[in-house]
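Interim report, section 4.2 (structural modelling).
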Amino acid sequence: MRIGYPCINRSIGCTASGTFRLASYTEERLKETVKRNLSCLEKILQYNCEHAMLFFRITSDLVPFASHPICTFPWQIHFAKEFRTLGEYIRQHGFRISMHPDQFVLLNAPDEGVFHRSIADLVYQVKVLDLMGLDTTAKVQIHVGGLYGDKPLSMDRFSEKYALLDPVIKNRLVIENDERLYTIEDCLALHERTGIPVIADSFHHALHNNGERFVDLLEPIRATWKTHDGIPMVDYSSQEPGKRVGAHAEHIVPEEFRQFLLETRQADFDIMLEIKDKEKSALAALGIAHDDSRLITRKNADA
DNA sequence: GGCAGTCAAGTACGC
DNA sequence: GCGTACTTGACTGCC
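Predicted structure of the assembly:
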């Protein structure tokens, strides 16, 4: 078990998500921004290494507009060396890496344009992981997509579109349950039809489910991850008090997290803490999990 | 320097 | 049918 947080580190004073307005796009601007982002990503990984946080989600903004037609600059070639160096660092220290395209990536969209733009974005995200030389345990997680007024049909369309994907994308893609439309059970059903691994979000599951307990789904979920996929990834969060139902917490709730570790103790997986104060909660989580036998520490990861 | 409006992309839903 | 929420940080223009 590794523990980590997504995309942003609030402690180190830089961001790997720097971007700019489409209207101010220039090749120069892109180069400067990507250079800064990659340099900051290196700092974030160093910070994570020092604190034994070995799971990290890389921001989709690492290369702004990478999948937009305006971006014709060969960033893959220009920054190949930087990506390779980052990848070496990641492998050397035993990090697990994920990426998460945002809501606009919809494989099951009936609109062909939306579908093709989604493919373009997946190509970009997979390319980032490939340039780093990471194996297929590094994943790109997406949601099933929209309902489009007919859920069974929209699930059929997901399977059909998934079948069309390049193996390079398929090897990295995993599907996640969401809080309103598709449950873990829906994702498991899609796994049966496509072979795609299922990444569970425990918080989304609490808000939208088919009556099953989260712990009872861990074994069926684990079975969707093959050896080359690595152990399952799990997204974890809790409710921010007083906010809309589904709003992610500002801080980890230690007692809740301790209970989560206890309930799931028979399963092994990597935990992504989707909590707003990022590395701060991840540090707290590591403290809570320090005597959990599943936890991979920096020492045994380096060894 | 600080603030508020806005940002590539889509869908669901209420009116 | 249309506007807004969703979710989010950060860019950008304006004061």
